[in-house]
Amino acid sequence: MLTLSTSTRALLLLLAAAASAQTPTSAPVPPPPRKAKPKPKSAPPPYNPNIILLDPAHGGQDNGSNLGPKAGNELEKDLNIAFANRLNTLLTAKGFTVVLTHAASSDEVTADQRVELTNRTRAVACLLLHATPSGKGIHLFASSLTAPSYADERDNTTIAPWDSAQVPSLPRSLQLANEMATALNGLKVPLLVGRASVSPIDSMSCAAVAVEIAPAADKSNVADETYQQHIAESIVTALTYWRQHAQDQLNAQQAAQNAAAAPAKGAPNTPPPTTTPKPKPKPKPIIINAPDEVPLAPDTTPAPKPVPVPTRPAGPIPVAPPAGKGPGAQP
Asked: Other C-beta atoms within 10 Å of 51: how many?
């Protein structure tokens, strides 16, 4: 059996302690950085102020009305396409982007296809173009549907029924009709503004108005190009003002959203508010009496009791009659 001396054991213990002191210790592993939460995607605006959709009524095998001998028996579908192209030229010159549901009167486009294209454009205004040989002047129609109290076109989470998709946009459709009526009133021709479920306006989810052109007077021609040019120019004027109103509304909504999100975004980087320390109260001065002075003693004289004021009995205050006017006075 190997025996170690006391000095040897002490030396081995010192060597072991030195070796353990030189052994590197592992540094603590920092926790992984937290991933920043992705910013919620804001919903797109309900409309684009620069997009106008034009829907010339009829087309293909659907000829629409015959506009009569004064208009050379022109078919309504042809006049509607011609008027849409006239509007397209004027609107493009004003910086609008114009979308047509179909470009030629021979196109076979169903009402559902026109609605599907309309609701994908997010247009600020949708105009359904019609013409008639009967009546006079210009007719503007918004949908005859009734908007319930909960309707809100900014709610993108609700799926509207196909036959009543226009309901949330009805307030804006009526505003658009009034805007157009104000501009068209300057033409000094008969103007009719009303409500009617003109196909397919009830299924459109934009501010939609049906525009029907009738002759200006009994002996007028609905296909007269000068007449149509004046109508088109007035409509473009109304849509220019309508675009500005729509842009102002979007700007106001965006400003409100930014104001609501500003505290949440700036909270981590915003320094804590600095509080102004309250000033310390000044110490009251200590009055030291001079050696030859005696402090004033408090006044112990009792205060005089208040003298009671006599009160008069309740009732009206008697008024003495003027001299010579008493009960015993001579008349």
From this structure: 18
Whether 99 contacts 150, CB under 8 Å = no
Residue type, 162: W
Listed as ranges, residues in the chain with pLDDT below 50 are: 150-157, 283-299, 307, 309-322, 325-331
- Please tell me the distance from the alpha carbon of residue 79 to that of residue 98, in angstroms, as a whole number: 18
What is the rounded distance in angstroms from the CA atom of residue 82 to the CA atom of residue 85?
5
pLDDT in tens, 64-91: 999 999 899 999 999 999 999 999 999 9
Q: CA-to-CA distance for 14 and 1, rounded, in angstroms?
A: 23
313-331 burial code (b ≥16 CB/10 A, e <16)? eeeeeeeeeeeeeeeeeee
DSSP H helices, the chain, are: 6-22, 76-93, 111-121, 170-184, 225-266
Question: pLDDT by residue (tens digit) across 229-271?
Answer: 999 999 999 999 999 999 998 898 888 888 887 765 555 555 5
Separation of alpha carbons 109 and 59, rounded Å: 7
Residues contacting 31, CB < 8 A, separation 6+: none
Q: Write down the H helix ranges in 122-224.
A: 170-184
Question: Distances in Å between the alpha carbon of 264 and those of 39, 254, 255, 260, 271?
Answer: 11, 16, 15, 8, 14
